[in-house]
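can u do me a favor
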């Protein structure tokens, strides 16, 4: 198949719409549903991300994509009991691939609502069972077991989008796209991201444990497929906060840091023990948890809105308790797609437990950024490589 007609482009008024190959066949097969323009944009970007994560770490990888940027990305490390609880996996069996997807989807559940999923390996039953429970637009993977495909084809009354991609497909070295009727041409970003990028440690602290290296690699590969400007916090084999598409880098750092904070606050005892009413919808539960953690919860209590979701009024998680809990957050890795121009980014990162940083370097204020890292004992590597994605 050389081309596939789509329902419409980015918006319903943008017709006609199709994907096609000038040479050869499309490297995909649609096994279920009718993916659209944005679905394929997410599918092809997210597939590259998980393919590179698998190659870099040797572990199964998964990504949760929304609007051509990842909401989460992770490799298949086992889940602790607390992780199972905050990711709502229950007691079901979890393969390594299913663990990767649970982590990718669970990092920022509000942003992942209605996501596109990418899997580095053949989708198995465990992973399909997790996907079945979530609100999602579709999935791309190199293959599906018969059991997994049957589960996915039953989702959304048979309209769920399932794409199989040829894992051996290699695109042309030169890529093109049009903007305003003008064709742009550039070489593909074939940059290989691995631990060799992390050897130029410019801070007083030059210790990078193996897990920190894995987390920094995950962060940098995630940034390679995130709309710029972008910053990514990672810990224990997964992205925990992604700030994408901001004009100011410190706003990226704040946005991603806030998401990382929420990820960690969801592990607080008071959050884990919230008395939800039976049968509450997953999206309502996720939104309610975010409101409970936020500083707006006092207004919700005052308005009596808690009665919609809880069997009893939960005890408030105070600002002091939140700060005390966040102060125990440690060992977080942080990647940036371009240099940090000021030390204020490091100040904000430190508040979210960042201990390891990888960034290109090259700012006229590198000395200030390094000095701020040294103040907090942060190890920082200059990669010398920018990772803009537009």
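np, heres the sequence
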């Amino acid at each position: 198949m050389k081309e596939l007609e789509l329902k419409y482009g980015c918006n319903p008024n943008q017709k006609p719409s199709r994907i096609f190959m000038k040479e050869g066949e499309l490297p995909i097969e649609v096994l279920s549903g009718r993916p659209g323009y944005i679905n394929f944009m997410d599918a092809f970007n997210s597939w590259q991300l998980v393919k590179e994560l698998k190659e870099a770490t040797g572990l199964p990888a998964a990504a949760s994509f929304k609007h051509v940027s990842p909401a989460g990305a992770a490799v298949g490390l086992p889940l602790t009991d607390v992780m199972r609880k905050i990711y709502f996996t229950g007691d079901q069996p979890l393969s390594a691939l299913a663990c990767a997807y649970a982590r990718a989807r669970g990092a920022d559940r509000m942003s992942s609502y209605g996501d596109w999923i990418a899997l580095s390996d053949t989708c198995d039953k465990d992973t399909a069972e997790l996907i079945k429970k979530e609100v999602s637009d579709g999935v791309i993977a190199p293959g599906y077991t018969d059991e997994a495909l049957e589960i996915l084809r039953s989702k959304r009354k048979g309209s769920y989008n399932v794409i199989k991609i040829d894992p051996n497909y290699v695109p042309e070295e030169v890529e093109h796209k049009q903007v305003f009727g003008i064709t742009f041409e550039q070489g593909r970003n074939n940059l290989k991201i691995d631990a060799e990028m992390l050897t130029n440690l410019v801070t007083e602290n030059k210790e990078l444990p193996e897990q920190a290296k894995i987390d920094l690699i995950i962060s940098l590969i995630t940034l390679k497929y995130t709309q710029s400007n972008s910053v990514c916090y990672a810990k224990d084999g997964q992205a925990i906060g992604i700030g994408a598409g901001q004009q100011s880098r410190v706003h990226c750092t704040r946005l991603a840091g806030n998401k990382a904070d929420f990820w960690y606050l969801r592990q607080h005892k008071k959050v884990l023990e919230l008395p939800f009413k039976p049968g509450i919808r997953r999206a309502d539960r996720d939104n309610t948890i975010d409101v409970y953690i936020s500083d707006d919860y006092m207004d919700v209590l005052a308005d009596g809105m808690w009665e919609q979701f809880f069997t009893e009024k939960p005890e408030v998680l105070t600002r002091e308790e939140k700060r005390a809990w966040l102060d125990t957050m440690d060992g977080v890795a942080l990647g940036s797609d371009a240099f940090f121009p000021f030390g204020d980014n490091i100040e904000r990162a430190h508040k979210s437990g960042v201990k390891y940083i990888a960034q290109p370097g090259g700012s006229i204020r590198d000395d200030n950024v390094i000095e701020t890292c040294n103040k907090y004992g942060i190890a920082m590597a200059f990669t010398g490589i920018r990772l803009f994605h537009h």
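The chain has a mean pLDDT of 94. hope that helps!!
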